[in-house]
Amino acid sequence: MSTVSENLQPVVEDEITIEVTINGSPRSGRAEPRLLLADFLRQQLGLTGTHLGCEHGVCGACTVLIDGEPVRSCLMFAIQARGADITTVEGLDDDGELHPVQQAFHAKHGLQCGFCTPGMVLTCKALLDHNPTPSEPEIRDFLSGNICRCTGYVGIVESVKEAAAAGRGVSPAAPASTTTER
Amino acid sequence: MTVTEPLTVRPPQYVGARVLRVEDNKYLMGRGRYLDDLALPGMLQAAFVRSPHAHARIASIDISAAKALKGVVEVLTGAELAKMGTPLVADLQREEVLPVGKELLATDKVRHVGEAVAIVIAESRYLAEDGAQLVSVEYEPLPALVDPEQALSHGAVLLHDDVPGNNVAHIEFDSGGVEEAFAKADRVFTKRFHAGRQHAAPLETRGVMADYNPGTGHLTIWSSTQLPHFLRTLIAPHLQMSERHLTVIAPDVGGGFGLKCHVFVEEAIIPLVAKRLRRPVKWVEDRVENLAASGHAKEIVMDIDIAVTNDGRFLAFRGRYIGDCGAYSGYPWTALIDPLAAANLLPSLYDVREMSFQVDAVLTNKCQTTAYRGPGMAPGHLARETLIDDIAHELGMDPVELRIKNCIGPEPYVTVNNMRFDGGSYVESIRKAQELVDYDRFREAQAAARAEGRYLGIGFSPFVEAGTWGSEGAKALGFPAEFYDTASVTVEPDGTVTVTTGTFNHGQGHHTSLAQLAADRLGVRIENVRVVDGDTSKAVWGAGTYASRSAVVAGGSILYAATEVRNKLLALAGSLLEASPDDIELYDGQASIKGVPEKSLPIAQLAGVGYFGGALRPEGQEPTLSATRYYDPPQTYSNGVVVAIVEVDAETGRVDLQRVVAVEDCGTMLNPLIVEGQVHGAVAQGIGAALYESLEYDESGQLLSGTLMDFLYPSSTEVPTIEVSHIVTPSPVTEGGMKGMAEGGTIAAPAAVINAIADALTPFGAVIRHAPVRPADVLALIEAGRA
């Protein structure tokens, strides 16, 4: 005989006001202490571009930038982000004009279903902000905390190279592809 | 060698060009709308109470504490749900198959860890989970079956009283002369292979939202599904509703890979609850639920026998497939989705005229099994292709030459079990892959490395992919039913084009590739074509997207419908330009007389006449410019090869995947950029199957891999650059020459990687009998070889 968690009591705590800077603008919302930052962004602020793939810190889909550093918003409470400067995917484009990293993902087929994409482009932005000329092993190492189930990372790695090259004003060599027609 | 850059200018035709995807921007900007991004006024959220036991009787459920919690609106158990809707019963129109039912929520028994026994609906997900913790369930544990052969054995406890022997189906095939062929063979090789338990594990989990309007009697269901129309048709009876009162919308879907081409109990429960409460209700699966209680895949215990002559000719294949199918028969495709598909693809590209197989689809106390990219085909391929490498080794033959010696020719070929291959580059693709990896030089490098105590290996894995799933193709794999699809093509009054299709884009780039087809056929620019799918009230009925079917079935139906509309445009142009419709060409938004480009009209103007031109229309031509057509293709099969090169570290057991080369032949390519993306993704999933991904249960049926810390996806440091080459052998039987593709990489890559490991470990006489192959397994093989 067994019962499930019969001794657990629900957590009921008061909401508090959280003030943050999101994508350059001040925003505030209410959050109970247990509210995850990801849920705060998505539900309280309506920024649903931040996705949740596992809620236990493995997949990286929920990655946002806090003071320029990639952070898993599913492993952080909203309350811990009080006063932080947060960049979400919604803050990357310039009034519809894609950020160079976004443009590179488009040009190199760096996305398929799009679910990992926000976390992936933010992570790539953080990489290139720190290291504008990453080698392929450096790219792969930096991206290894972001899971993509669709692309096999081939297009993504090419996208980062493309974005890095665009930052230097050059165009990288296209990957080889051969076709035999009948 | 041609290197083609993505397209930036209007090509002579879109089909075949590397057109950048038109759907990208919303995803890149975080403006995709996935299931969990949706919300409705007054919406409630649900959480499930799930079994911690593999097999148990439910003695009692106490929901009082949960119901008393502030913010909890309702708590329902299986007994209540049973009054509201009916079980999902998976059955196949074959006499061997037993129907298996799954209650919406378990009432008397749970049959796997994670099976839902109650649902809590609350003002927020947090509160719903609080409530779920307060539901107290008393279980009486029963013996758990975790070994399919034990489950099959006489006297085993039954999971379902109406499924004797725990066997959903025993299916046999015999070409007639198999035993004779084995009797006269010089050599008979045998292998048991146990393929690992996998999970499609799309990055977006499942999820359902529903909203009932008591004023109209209309229910809208949003689901993260691959088949919105099919879901509506299949779920309506369980909701006791008519399809006219049901709308199903698939919003943006973050990957499916086969998991979401099923109908799940949650897709009945959430609508039923929304209807009962008269408030919108949403449930989003968490990752633990996803791993424990959605759909597992591909675990099959296989015994493969091959009868061979001394000079390496295959005389006969014999296979036994025991599917470890979990506690239910996945709805609607049944528990046969893996073992039967594995068996029917046993011949692959080998010219074998005698074959027999036996299939058992066995119920065990694990999560049910469902389709996952290359269902059945992938594990079946592993068993066959690793055995072929073993045979080459035993006969002292080169494994590539052994395959080519037994390979069918390029022309159409009917297999011994009546699969009708429509021709392909079966040998040519292997030769091309050999060239790409510089096979002879690799063998030299391998020998040199071995002399230094380093272990390099290479694995070849040529494949035939039984995708597409028109009615004939599905039947050939053992699944008889109708699988056509439908498209509507409309030239709007301003000359832009709307295509609707019953297939559903969830990452495959259909909004680009299908628009390419329509743009070419109608002579318009691709930016003037919009593809609409994923909403039963906006797109024509169709069976959805799975089994690599969309390019062929959606493509064919779009070509048919667009041709009808094109003919109307040609008639209008002929009439207005005073020429025969046969002399009109449509290109780049203009209709002109061939050879007389100055005599032209914008297609937008033709469209205006088509809608509002009255007597300007040719006599008898109806107004508007629209057509709806369906297409049900004959059997078609793509083919190709995956080659892997590895170095194995004999000290640590680590496998360094140094190079992966794929040759793909899927007939006419709509868009090589998208084809390559599909190959990359499929191969990466195959690498996961070979080296990392496995859902493990202990002997009591407890799931040990319930998080992504335990079920390991390959990351960017595990997947190397995947080199893709194309051969184009257009299908002679499909409209447009396309062949379904996107699963070949997942079918073939596991065997390529595992054969490469075995090849590297040849000095240790390694024979690999299971997947995945992890460092501990590698070390065990080395140790066994040294002993």
Automatic annotation (TrEMBL), chain A:
Protein's pathway: Alkaloid degradation; nicotine degradation
GO molecular function terms attached to this record: 2 iron, 2 sulfur cluster binding; metal ion binding; oxidoreductase activity
Domain 2Fe-2S ferredoxin-type: 16-92
Source species of the chain: Pseudonocardia bannensis
Protein name, per record: (2Fe-2S)-binding protein
Keyword check for Translocase: no
Transmembrane segments: none
The keyword Metal-binding belongs to this UniProt entry's keyword annotation: yes
Gene3D superfamilies for this protein: 3.10.20.30, [2Fe-2S]-binding domain
Highest taxon of the lineage: Bacteria
InterPro entries xref list: 2Fe-2S-bd, 2Fe-2S-bd_dom_sf, 2Fe-2S_ferredoxin-like_sf, 2Fe-2S_ferredoxin-type, 2Fe2S_fd_BS, Beta-grasp_dom_sf, Diverse_Oxidoreductases
SUPFAM superfamilies, per database record: 2Fe-2S ferredoxin-like, CO dehydrogenase ISP C-domain like
Keywords of this entry: 2Fe-2S, Iron, Iron-sulfur, Metal-binding, Oxidoreductase
UniProtKB/TrEMBL annotation, chain B:
GO MF annotations, alphabetized: iron ion binding; oxidoreductase activity
Domain spans labelled Aldehyde oxidase/xanthine dehydrogenase a/b hammerhead: 29-143
Keywords of the record: Molybdenum, Oxidoreductase
SMART domains: Ald_Xan_dh_C
PANTHER family: ALDEHYDE OXIDASE 1-RELATED (PTHR11908:SF132), XANTHINE DEHYDROGENASE (PTHR11908)
Name listed for the protein in its UniProt record: Xanthine dehydrogenase family protein molybdopterin-binding subunit
